Amino acid sequence: MKTKFINGVSSSPSMSLGLLVTENVLQVQPDTQEDCKELVRPDQPDLDTRRKAYLWCREFLHGAWKNLAEEDFQITIIRGGLSNKLFLCSLPDSLDSVGDEPRSILLRLYGAILQ
After folding, report:
1. pLDDT in tens, 37-52
2. What GO molecular function terms would the record report (predicted)?
3. What are the Cα distances from residue 107, in Å, to 32, 33, 34?
């Protein structure tokens, strides 16, 4: 099982997914074409995936992520991965940062975990 976090340390955009990675923030870029509207889905992942994502974020990230309550955990499905599942995981606006932890991360699930 492989899990990879993108935490906002790069300032170059990822144009293929419509994501803009800036320092400590991962943002969805505004739509530039009509066919990009379905990239971020408003629906939630299934409960098992949501729980696993929450536990991974708490385990691998620092600061406010360590004390984040599961009901405050925010996750959004990002479409576009052919063999991956992509999620935008975020801290709620009401929760203050403890240090320099990222407020949003891109979680990519790939490989054996999807089988």
Report:
1. 555 555 788 999 999 9
2. kinase activity
3. 24, 25, 25
